[in-house]
Amino acid sequence: MTPIVSADVAVVGAGPAGLAAAVAAAESGAAVVLVDAGAQPGGQFWRHRPETVVPEQEGKGHHGGRTYLDLRARFDAARGRGRITYLPGLQVWMAQQLHPVQGDDAGFTLRTTPTAAVAALEASVGTQTVVARRLVLCPGGYDRQLPVPGWDLPGVMAAGGIQAFIKANGILPGKRFVIAGTGPFLLPVAANIAEAGGKVLAVLESSSPTAWLPHLRAAAGVPEKALEGAEYAAVFARHRIPYRTRSIVTEVLGTDHVSGVRTARVDADGRVRPGTERAYEDVDVVGFGWGFTPQMELPLSFGVQTRLDADGSLVGVVDERQQSSVPGLFLAGEVTGVGGATLAVLEGLAAGTAAAGGTVLPEKTAARHRRFAEAMHRAHPVPPAWQDWLVPETIVCRCEEVTARQLTDARESLGARDTRTLKSFTRAGMGWCQGRVCGFAAACIGAGSGVAPTAESLSGSAKRPLAAPVGIGELAALETTDN
Amino acid sequence: MNSASDVLVIGAGVIGAATAYFAAQQGLTVTVLDKGLPASGTSSACEGNILVSDKELGPELELTRYSLGVWHGDLAEHKRLWEFESKGGIIVASRESSLASLNRVMAAQARYGVVVEKLDPDTLRNAEPNITPDALGGASYPEDCQVQPMLVAAHLVRLATDAGARFVADTPVTGFLRSGDRITGVRTPRGDFSAGAVVNCAGTWAGELAALAGVNVPVLPRRGFVMVTEPLPPMVHHKVYAAEYIDNVGSSDAGLQASPVVEGTPSGTILIGSTRERVGFDRTVSTNALRLLAENAVALFPFLEHVKAIRHYHGFRPYCPDHLPVIGHDERAPGLWHAAGHEGAGIGLSAGTGKLLAQALSGQAPDLDLSPFAPARFGERKENSTTHREEATA
Amino acid sequence: MSTHSSGETWSVNTPGAVNVSFDGRPLVAVPGQNIGAALVSNGITAWRSTRKNARPRGLFCGIGVCFDCLVTVDGEANQRACLVEVQEGMEIEGSCPDQGGRA
Ligand SMILES: Cc1cc2nc3c(=O)[nH]c(=O)nc-3n(C[C@H](O)[C@H](O)[C@H](O)COP(=O)(O)OP(=O)(O)OC[C@H]3O[C@@H](n4cnc5c(N)ncnc54)[C@H](O)[C@@H]3O)c2cc1C
Ligand SMILES: Cc1cc2nc3c(=O)[nH]c(=O)nc-3n(C[C@H](O)[C@H](O)[C@H](O)COP(=O)(O)OP(=O)(O)OC[C@H]3O[C@@H](n4cnc5c(N)ncnc54)[C@H](O)[C@@H]3O)c2cc1C
Ligand code: FES
User: Fold this and answer.
1) CATH (domain of C45)
2) What is the reported pLDDT for B3?
3) Distance, CA A340 to ligand 1 centroid (Å)?
4) Which ligand number lies closest to the CA of residue A142?
5) Which of A170, A393, A446, C79 is least buried, going by the fewest C-beta atoms within 10 A?
6) B303 to chain C: which residues are within 8 Å by CB?
7) Residue of C51, C78, C97 lying closest to B308 (CB–CB)
8) d(CA A68, CA A72)
């Protein structure tokens, strides 16, 4: 039988939001359990080399590193005092409300499974069931993707995936890179590659530099971002990285591996401007990033109220204490709106404090960061005409190898307009990743060219009754508790 | 008012789709309404088995065999559209007692003309090398086959529209139009639709619609969970289920039951179905259901213990207390027809149901006697009918 | 906070190097690397082929979301190469059982 760990507050995710939530809840007096799929704390932003191999050093070379070191010290201290039980290497595959009772005894259960079922790694922590009065979900997100011809070739990676690769391994996944998509995140990726010795042939940004102008006020509210921007500009200048705006990759070239890309300039809607095509040869890694998609399956499994954020992502609605529409369930970080690590920390602190019953004061800094994030989203939209880049044979669902043609056929002849029906008729989103990678694109295709997907359609692909694959043997051994 | 049609079908699940398709083939003008998109009800939350092997002897088996003929006959040309596969079913007995009841069932089925072969442990293991070593024997049903149900519903609707039918999505029926006692159409937020015949194919919601028309058609939900594994190389070659399944299907027990139906799919995943329980329209995930499915599947195929599930889903089978579907004209509300309540067999039965109903709708004598499925078997009109009449004619 | 350490190169001779095998062939990995990184830094960028079109796949999302990078590790099928840290003696196989062949 699976061991059961109980706590006042359970936190899922040890990224900026989750780490902050766990620390704040523990410092407010709660007994905390922190479950994270990763092998060590940090999440995406603070991903680092395994501490077993490279001991923690200064926070240098890393934006927000000081915040991490501070949180980490408080986290380690709380663990030392027995206030935080840390369960790394475990994925929550299902979260449930024990009974929909309001008030103090609202309780939650988390079912977990090892992230990697590898005997050599079976560390101290085996599968555990967590029971807690309050739950804080901080599962973060992943790079949002738009398919283009050739994006399924080896050597094509998510922009964040490249970043994660470098941070986790201390090496580069290739030598000659093209980074494309939209958003400020492309800058640190390219800068990091260059600083690690890679050649960045170009950064292609689909939006235009003037897209910033209307949002300058909001951007000015977060001066540290300007500083960051200046640092990247310096890195770009030092390494002579071309930054091409209003530009996209129209096709990734190669037979069994990336060999190059074709690019073009686009108009404000993302339509290719004829005559602007060019090619980059001798490329071995292409990184794509179109913003981020919050990992919504756990919040959605509770039926939390959702909304469409400025970037078109489906996110959870929370109050000023980060409480969702489900009493006792708090959300922080990317799942309440993609807004960067600093905001994720502030939200995590509020959520942790509130979940532990403490008082949360209104945060001016968080509000500034939210305005900044919104300005960023508006300046870096997914180009409305992106579906024009597809050719009928382009794979949209990488797992089930469903093509753009199959999806548009299902829409045109079978009336599939949302991710649910598209999935039913074509299998897009039914494979290993359960629509995490193709969900946004499929929702766009269902809606039709130039039309933004609805929250309902996005939620159709983000509802995943199993938040992670789980062994049938583990399911057979589940104890009988509920209904 | 939208233009009138001969037949108005409520619901674009497999049953409504098949009804619309065959009615259009009969030359009738057809309108199909659904509150959502095609296949948005139970037809997208089930498995696509067309089983002869699990049917009780009697009218349901007759309808199944008729339907099988329609799948292989009238619909043969479209087989590829919905991934029709003649896969064959195998029932496995792992206990002496269940082997004995399986043998009894086989003998009776054979008398009814069902093609069934007895499998001794060796032939069973040849057919399913990964089966549990506990298996004592089994039965093979070569007639059992399968389809992809969502594609069946979607393509039948499309084929019907190609033949002149009209499909209107996102249009819930909220009331009925009447002329005297006669049902003459439906009311929706998109206006009224009048028709010579209105066919209630609202699946698990058919009871609610019948009530709107003032008649009692007791269709209730029976929840079922299905689990899907990671993609694997072919490990399970037929639809394989345990002998206890047969007892479960017709059971009236409200509690949670599950006997494994394990089958490989062309996409490499293995489907593990399905539980049966009466909990209304409760959508909360039941860990007990997952545990039962997993336990039973591992008992049948031990290798599954080390395989991962990547998703699960659930649906609500539309069932009537006597476990027979409701098919035909409702004398209690002239002009209203029903085709609903097919419980765990609606996919398999859809082809036959649609064809028979279309025959009846166009005034022919149906190929199979529909009287065992007559709606009026549930008794008199409902008392509250007047309310709805006022509402509908308001 | 450790960041990338540019200029760091590893060879068989590096003290602490981790020896693993990929489809029976010996590979040297850096301690702490994940399997995906160990393969890529040994020039192997695809280790799986898709079920339908037999197309090669390797790393994509890099963080355990896409399942493109599946490998068999010590007989345990369908593990995400981007999440599993290399260990001395690990036997890695690229042809996952759901695949027809390998890139
Ligand atoms: C690949 C990637 C790289 C990035 N790199 C940078 C960067 O270099 N610079 C930058 O400014 N921003 C970067 N970002 C954006 C950055 O991640 C966010 O701004 C920030 O990390 C958000 O913090 P968070 O706490 O909400 O989520 P995250 O940091 O994503 O943390 C979420 C944590 O939850 C865990 N988790 C999720 N689901 C489960 C589950 N079911 N069970 C158990 N654990 C679970 C995850 O494994 C993860 O550890 C990156 C994003 C991605 C996806
Ligand atoms: C887990 C599970 C496994 C199953 N496995 C099998 C199997 O292997 N083989 C098999 O043959 N059967 C199986 N079944 C049973 C089968 O799924 C059903 O019998 C069948 O789908 C019923 O089809 P239907 O068209 O009657 O209902 P539905 O598919 O539910 O269609 C009814 C339609 O009516 C619409 N509707 C409802 N109310 C209104 C309204 N007021 N106005 C307009 N439209 C409305 C709905 O939106 C819906 O689209 C299974 C069921 C479950 C739950
Ligand atoms: S690269 Fe996506 S899961 Fe490993």
Assistant:
1) 3.10.20.440
2) 82
3) 9
4) 1
5) A393
6) none
7) C78
8) 6
The reply to whether residue A476 touches residue B294, judged by beta carbons under 8 angstroms, is: yes
Instruction: Please state the CATH superfamily assignment of the domain spanning residues A390-452 in this structure.
Output: BFD-like [2Fe-2S]-binding domain (1.10.10.1100)
Give all domains of chain B, ordered by start, each with its CATH number.
2-66+149-218+322-378 (3.50.50.60), 89-142+221-319 (3.30.9.10)
Put simply, whether A436 touches C (Cβ < 8 Å) is yes
Residue-wise over B276-306: b if at least 16 C-beta within 10 A, else e? bbbbeeeeebbbbbbbbbbbbbbbbbeebbe
Supply the pLDDT for residue C99: 43
Q: Which residues pair with B170 in a beta bridge?
A: none
Give residue-wise pLDDT tens across range A39-92.
Answer: 999 999 888 888 888 776 544 445 568 899 999 999 999 999 999 999 999 999
Among A34, A45, A138, A296, say which to mutate for ligand 1: greatest number of ligand atoms within 8 Å of CB.
A45
- Tell me the chain C residues in contact with residue B309 when contact means C-beta distances shorter than 8 Å: none
Asked if the structure places residue C8 within a domain, the reply is no
What per-residue confidence (pLDDT) applies to A15? 97
d(CA B327, CA B339): 4
Q: Flag if A416 and B37 touch (Cβ within 8 Å).
A: yes
- For chain A, the farthest-separated pair of C-alpha atoms sits apart, in whole angstroms, at 66
Cα B15 from Cα B18, distance rounded (Å): 5
Asked if B141 contacts B91 with a C-beta cutoff of 8 angstroms, the reply is yes
C1 → closest Cβ in A48, A142, A284? A48
Give the domain A155-290 fold.
FAD/NAD(P)-binding domain (3.50.50)
Interface test with B, best of A475, A479, A483 (most B CBs within 10 A): A475
Question: Which residue ranges make up each domain of chain A?
Answer: 4-142+293-358, 155-290, 390-452
pLDDT digits (tens, 9 = 90+) for B296-331: 999 999 999 999 999 999 999 999 999 999 999 999
Q: Which residues of A touch B310 (CB under 8 A)?
A: 432, 434, 466, 469
Q: How does DSSP assign A19-85, residue by residue?
A: HHHHHHHHHTT--EEEE-SSSSTTTTTT--S-TTTS----STTSTTHHHHHHHHHHHHHHHHTTSEE
Q: In testing the pocket of ligand 2, which one of B32, B347, B373 has its CB within 8 Å of the most ligand atoms?
A: B347
**What's phi and psi for A273, nearest 5 deg?**
-90, 115
Residue B391 confidence (pLDDT): 34
Q: State pLDDT tens for residues A458-478.
A: 999 999 999 999 999 999 998
| Same fold across A4-142+293-358 and A390-452 | no
Mean of pLDDT values over A147-166: 98
CATH architecture designation of domain A4-142+293-358: 3-Layer(bba) Sandwich (3.50)
Of A431, A465, A471, the CB nearest to B285: A465
Ligand 1 centroid–CA C91 distance in Å is 29
Give how many domains chain C has, as a whole number: 1
How large is the average pLDDT for residues B35-43?
Answer: 94
pTM: 0.94
Q: How far apart are the first and last CA of chain C?
A: 37
List Cβ neighbours of A233 (8 Å cut-off, separation of 6 or more).
none
- The finding on whether A333 has its CB within 6 A of some atom of ligand 1 is yes
Using one digit for the tens of pLDDT, what is the confidence trace for A204-224?
999 987 766 666 667 777 777
User: Strand C70-73 relative to strand C76-80: parallel, antiparallel, unpaired?
Assistant: antiparallel
B331–A contact, CB cutoff 8 A:
no
The model's pLDDT over C7-52, given as tens digits with 9 standing for 90+, comes to: 445 555 566 899 999 999 999 999 999 999 999 999 999 999 999 9
Contact B233 C78 (CB under 8 A): no
Q: Which residues line ligand 3 (CB under 6 A)?
A: C 59-62, 64-69, 80-82
Nearest CA among A179, A137, A184, A147 for reference residue A162:
A179
